[in-house]
Write a structure and sequence with these properties.
Layout: H1 2-23, E1 41-47, H2 50-58, E2 63-71, H3 80-85, E3 91-98, H4 105-113, E4 123-124, E5 127-128, E6 134-138, H5 141-157, E7 167-170, E8 174-176, H6 184-187, H7 189-199, H8 201-209, H9 215-219
Parallel strand pairs: 6-7
Antiparallel strand pairs: 1-3, 1-6, 2-3, 2-8, 4-5
Helix pairs in contact: 1-5, 4-5
Length: about 220
Amino acid sequence: MKEDAMTIGVVLGLALAGALLVAGPAQAKEGAPATGVRRVEKATFAGGCFWCMEAPFDKLDGVVSVTVGYTGGRTVKPTYEEVSAGGSGHAESIEIVFDPAKIGYDKLLAVFWRNVDPTTPNRQFCDVGTQYRTAIFYHGEEQKRLAEATKKALEESRRLPGGIATEIVPAAAFWPAEEYHQHYYRRNPVRYKFYRYNCGRDRRLEELWGRDAEHRAAGGRSG
């Protein structure tokens, strides 16, 4: 399994390198921030329980903030109860603000894939429903190109069982979740680890990606 994970990593790396070459150098735009002002970008991912998706990104150098919330649905200003009921169309998601001078979107994609089971539609581990689907919500054509390149590389590698169910769709309105959900893994470490262990998240990630999966670096192995 470790060899499979290494192979997938190489394939993803080659795909991202090719996509970056196609994208070419960034062009200066009118109204760009003056020299010395930090330019930040956003990345939005859905990967099941947002408590578990926050942790792997939170400690990455270059990540400015991670907010858990809801996106991809119809309901305006949804509540946790509405999303959990499954009728809002939203997915539990995270919105990442990052400094592209310190960390690239390609790195964020690599961390995303290794923290989800992309083979299961409308489900992540013990959580079932459209609100737990996996998705990449892209901000702009470059993010779309990179996301599609990595998904294609995974499909062509045939290293994961079944197809890749992860959606790649344009970013829409993102609604931050209630305050008690923010940074839950830090504020409630015992409850967080208990939930994560009982949901079987880490066991499944290890089956898919090997023992060197990205989730171990940030969230700690807890299941």
